[in-house]
């Protein structure tokens, strides 16, 4: 970020700080919306949970095209300080969309037949006091039953965020002139991840024990992605097609793993009240996986000397 017009002075610390503030606000708002949506989706048929997960994937697809469009617009208008304006535009657009969810839920979603049943459950709760147990079993027992699938959701997102984008941001293209390679690989992830999230709606499924193995097997991506960033000249790490291939496999296992986990968790609930609790527990597993994975990714960057 630069300060001043006549003789601008670079201030990377201030720019980084403002970017962190914007990211924190967006992440905080997204976490609130996500937890609420998962809690509601758990009370509805599984198709709602699939739609919830797929919607997140679709949202990730629009980032790169919007970024490219902004670059074209800014270049045509000879706009200075393009990175700063891009950050501001992305923050404003995503903030408006996030806030728009509230009236959209009120005017559209709440009128759907599925949501009418959910709202009726909430209405019935108003007739009881806070001292009245809302679930048949203690919450601890519910969490215990849901824990295996919550751990799967946590593990899926945890592995993903250990290396993505912590290691992927250091990948280099075999073509030195391809300066946008990292963005291209990330977009590969977004596309294939969305496909993976949608596959359960096409009857792609597996037993829970198989899903646990599926999630645990993703640990192989941590050393693999790290080797690609540390040894870019070795074969086959050197080739762009190899990077896109492993990114596609990485993305498809991420999309299917987190979606199947989110679907199967509420199946252990007994009654609608427990289904809502299970939705919140699964959301916590998913979001805490993102947090823990990001922390371990940062630690890995520091230990490998990649963070300055």
Automatic annotation (TrEMBL):
InterPro entries: Eqnu_transpt, MFS_trans_sf. The gene is NT4_8. Keywords: Membrane, Transmembrane, Transmembrane helix, Transport. GO terms for cellular component: plasma membrane. It is found in: Membrane. Its main location: membrane. This is Solute carrier 29 (Nucleoside transporters), member. It is a multi-pass membrane protein. PANTHER family: EQUILIBRATIVE NUCLEOSIDE TRANSPORTER, EQUILIBRATIVE NUCLEOSIDE TRANSPORTER 4. Belongs to the SLC29A/ENT transporter (TC 2.A.57) family. The keyword Membrane applies. The keyword Transport applies. The chain crosses the membrane at residues 12-33, 88-108, 146-168, 211-231, 280-304. It comes from Perkinsus olseni (Perkinsus atlanticus). Pfam families: Nucleoside_tran. One of its GO terms (molecular function) is nucleoside transmembrane transporter activity.
């Amino acid at each position: 970020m630069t300060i001043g017009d006549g003789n601008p002075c670079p201030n990377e610390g201030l720019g980084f700080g403002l970017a962190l503030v914007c990211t924190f606000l967006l992440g905080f708002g997204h976490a609130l919306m996500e937890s609420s949506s998962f809690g509601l989706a758990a009370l509805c048929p599984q198709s709602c949970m699939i739609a919830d997960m797929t919607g997140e994937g679709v949202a990730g697809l629009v980032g790169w095209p919007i970024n490219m469009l902004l670059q074209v617009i800014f270049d045509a208008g000879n706009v200075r300080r393009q990175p700063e304006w891009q950050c501001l535009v992305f923050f404003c657009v995503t903030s408006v969309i996030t806030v728009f969810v509230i009236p959209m839920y009120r005017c559209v979603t709440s009128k759907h037949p599925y949501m009418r049943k959910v709202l009726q459950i909430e209405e019935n709760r108003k007739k009881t006091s806070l001292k009245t147990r809302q679930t048949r079993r203690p919450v601890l027992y519910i969490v215990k039953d849901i824990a295996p699938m919550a751990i799967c959701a946590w593990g899926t997102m945890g592995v993903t965020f250990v290396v993505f984008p912590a290691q992927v941001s250091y990948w280099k293209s075999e073509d030195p002139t391809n300066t946008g390679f990292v963005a291209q690989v990330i977009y590969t992830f977004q596309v294939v991840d969305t496909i993976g999230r949608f596959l359960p709606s096409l009857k792609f499924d597996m037993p829970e024990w198989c899903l646990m193995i599926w999630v645990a097997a993703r640990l192989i991506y941590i050393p693999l992605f790290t080797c690609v960033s540390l040894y870019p000249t070795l074969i086959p790490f050197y080739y762009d097609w190899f990077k896109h291939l492993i990114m596609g496999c990485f993305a498809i296992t991420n999309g299917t793993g987190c979606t199947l986990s989110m679907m199967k968790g509420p199946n252990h609930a007994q009654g609608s009240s427990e289904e809502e609790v299970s939705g919140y527990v699964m959301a916590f597993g998913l979001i805490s996986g993102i947090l823990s994975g990001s922390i371990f990714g940062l630690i890995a960057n520091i230990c490998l000397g990649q963070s300055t």
